[in-house]
Amino acid sequence: MTEVAGIRGGLKAHQDSVRLPDGELVRGLRDILGVKLVAYIGSVKETRAVRQWADGERKPSAEVMTRLRHAYHVAALLAERDSRSVVQAWFQGMNPQLDDVPPARMLREGQLEDAAQSVLTAARAFTAAG
Questions:
Q1: pTM, two decimal places
Q2: What pLDDT tens digit does each residue of the chain (130 aa) get?
């Protein structure tokens, strides 16, 4: 039964990452990760840009929005089991499953599809380990 609940939880995180409008997704990601980490993943230096994305005053590029959607999927998945501070630490810390690269850095700098898949796999392993 626990495995089914975990799958459903992962499914909700995925569905939200695909279905949420851009601004709502950015607000949700900002609520989980904080504005500085979202700005980092989104490759912007000013946190003001994140607020503008969240408020619909400005649109990130399609590539940045895709990176943010992948980040939201992972963050929402982790947030179902852990606190914001744990999720934030997980995104920023060295990860042995990612060759000690922090997940946020991998999502920001990596080849998008490969990085997203690797980070999601690492997040699933983290949640499975309890």
A1: 0.91
A2: 333 344 455 889 999 999 999 999 999 999 999 999 999 999 999 999 999 999 999 999 999 999 999 999 999 999 999 999 999 999 999 999 999 999 999 999 999 999 999 999 999 999 998 7
Contact predicate 84/28, CB 8 Å: no
> DSSP assignment of 51-108, as one string?
HHHHHTSS---HHHHHHHHHHHHHHHHHHTTS-HHHHHHHHHS--GGGTT--HHHHHH
| Residue 81, number of CB atoms within 10 A of its CB | 14
**What CA–CA distance (Å, rounded) separates 12 from 14?**
5
Q: What gap in Å lies between CA 75 and CA 108, rounded to an integer? A: 14
Residue 78 φ/ψ, nearest 5 degrees: -70, -35
